[in-house]
Amino acid sequence: MTDLRILLVAVVSFVSGLSAATHHALGQSEKEIQSKLDDLRSDNIPHNCESATKWFLKNREKLKARLEEEFYKAKDPQARDAILHVLFNTTSFTPDPRFVAAVLARLPQEDKFVGNRDIFTGPSEGPDRLCADGAHWEAWKFINDHFAVFEPKLKEQIGKTNSVLVLWGSAWLLKKHGVLQDNVALFTPVVLAKAAESLKTDNIWYNASQAVRLFLLLGDSSLPALRSAAKSTDNQTSSLAKATIDALGGNHKAFGYLGSKVLLEVTPFGPQVKPPDWQDSVIDLYLDRETYP
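^ thats the sequence. predicted structure below, dont judge the formating
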């Protein structure tokens, strides 16, 4: 063996030994890491994803770069959402443009590919909490925490998306950061007409609620779209549109009708909206009535 080959073998052996020593020092071997990654996938083994997610949460700071790499390679929706959950809850993790795009692409999928309530149980608070509501909900807090990074692309999505969840959540975040009025023009007549389509009877959970909350956030700029929707032959569309118009004018009974049919108090994250003291009494007026007024 030549001196050069001897040197190369020594270097390779040193690097391999260093890598193994590093994994050992961190308390993880490559075999263990890969096994936990495999457990994140949807494979009908009870609690395997939950158990692996807890393990990654405990090791998140050491493995965040590896998890981001695996996120882009993962084809299994459950594994991708589990990795998102860990990265969303890794304080030192900073999203780059590729990750921003991936998070925004996840939002409109909602529960189409994976229902997180079927994956996770356990603590919903604290550093090792498990999110049971879905990555598309948990993402909003992460976006809020990194708003400066997400804001340009978030605003760009408003004119492109067909998701009323994305429209409402974006408007809510813009308002939370005090910039909704500066960006209200992004919610064009075309965008609001798309949102109004979610008012109809379509058996899609919560989309009408999200549309109503969006229109209430946008205030008077919603009125043209609502007036058009109020002429719909679909009773739910016309009634919700008429009630939202009246609610924007301060009509208590209109809030009663809306409160009896949709969820007004929901927020993307954090405390829910506290209803006024008079709301319950006016809700009672419409519990058995489908048509407004």
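The chain has a mean pLDDT of 89.
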